[in-house]
């Protein structure tokens, strides 16, 4: 059975129910190395895992019963929400079983093809929004972030280590698709951002949280890490660009609602 643990809190993907800004341990802009996040400071971060806790992927809570993640990660999950440190059980945690999984139709499932690496997961019950668990907003359809736009990504909680955060500025498509960088591996449906530990330890499916006009949006879902060194500037992590999929996301949720579910 797949279940989810909401690691921190969330802000709305399609309809924002709460306005929330992350609480940082300190200002990390300009520092690409990861550091421990303030507890519950990224309230839309979700951890998914197998029933026995051994599988780690991430996701973003966009509505009370809906999570965005990587298509490569959605086998036998559970959702864990509100968690900060695996070594400590907390009243903030919410563990929710999965009701259904919706993979983008053009996802190929091939290990060497990363296009359309996106999935929606419907939870079996609503997440309870509070100081630890909230929703995150999606970007506008088709929106493309500028080079060096400030973003953050999170690193997994390998017990006893708590959740970490890393500054992950955007690398524009022209640069990231050039020779010596990712080249033809990437396309316009992807975002390159960050470097350092994200390249080795990032949560697949985890959010790329970006600040635009003073507000945070989830612009990406982690899809590709290098596996070839933790500080390879020319091989930054690759995220699925969610602004390319907002119509599909909204249609899946609306169809589920019209079928009688929330």
TrEMBL record:
One of its GO terms (cellular component) is extracellular space. Residues 1-16 form the signal peptide. Residues 27-254 form the Peptidase S1 domain. Its cofactor is Ca(2+). It is an enzyme of class 3 (hydrolase). Gene3D superfamilies: Trypsin-like serine proteases. It is found in: Secreted. Its main location: secreted. Pfam families: Trypsin. InterPro entries: Peptidase_S1_Elastase_sf, Peptidase_S1_PA, Peptidase_S1_PA_chymotrypsin, Peptidase_S1A, Trypsin_dom. It catalyses: Hydrolysis of proteins, including elastin. Preferential cleavage: Ala-|-Xaa. Keywords: Calcium, Disulfide bond, Hydrolase, Protease, Secreted, Serine protease, Signal. Its EC number is 3.4.21.36. Coiled coil: none annotated. CDD domains: Tryp_SPc. GO terms for biological process: proteolysis. One of its GO terms (molecular function) is serine-type endopeptidase activity. This is pancreatic elastase. It comes from Fundulus heteroclitus (Killifish).
